[in-house]
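Lecture 7 notes: from sequence to structure.

We start with a single chain of 289 residues. Read the sequence below before looking at the structure.
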Amino acid sequence: MSTDPLLRIRDLRVSYPAAGGAGGAGGMAEVVHGVDLDLASGERVALVGESGSGKSVTARAVLRLDPDARLSGGIELEGVDLLGLPQRRMREIRGGRVGLVFQDPLASLNPVMTIGRQVMQPLVIRGVSRRVARRRAIELLERLGVRDAEHRVDDYPHQFSGGMRQRVVIAIAVIAEPALLIADEPTTALDVRVQARVLELLHELAAERGMSILLITHDLGIVAGFAERAVVMRHGRAVETGTVDQIYNAPRHDYTRALLAAVPRIGGDVTRPLAVIGAAGNAPEEEES
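Now the structure, written as tokens:
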């Protein structure tokens, strides 16, 4: 049995065309700087950090979703070098071996296509008959808590609530039984009760299918209840990596400690200002040694 990780990222660097530069020269601006990350089969890992820390850019680089991005380093999935694959092979991996859940389900769904057609699509484009794909879509939606799924597959996204739309997006991402699910802020804009149910569903699906999950979030509360390991990112760098217990109980980097200090706590002193994460001081920019 192989002990190699399902996903291996080494010295990943991501650059985008700069809007300008010295003297208007333009050029490339690097936004992710040498990130390393391993994800084992069946493991749940969280990429954590503030908005703009580079966590979503890192995740999108795995699937090469940004045509303007210049990628260097190494990204291997099941031993296959993704950076060296032609676009045709990458299209097979997207939605096949790797599923993706975006943070805004309404923007992720096609408003003029029925829910059923969108959930079925990953199977149909892989040669599964429409009859079988529809049956599997209905079964999966029922599994995810969509009531009367047999009839609701013919509804449109605007006829679903935010929580139900997120269930539909999850169904699209996992119906082809990917080895890896990338969940980019999957509970944003959902109320606490719906957040908990969505995370519970992801946990159950991962356990049932042996699926790995890379969770992108800024919410350390979510990390504590969902992930096994966490990678803390700041300014495009991974500043700390460890198990969830290590990150919460013995953080090694000042930035990680600052993130934890900024989390509101039940029973805490409501008159005390929350910690502020500045550009320096309590959250220095240098990487851990």
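The chain has a mean pLDDT of 88. Keep this in mind for problem set 3.
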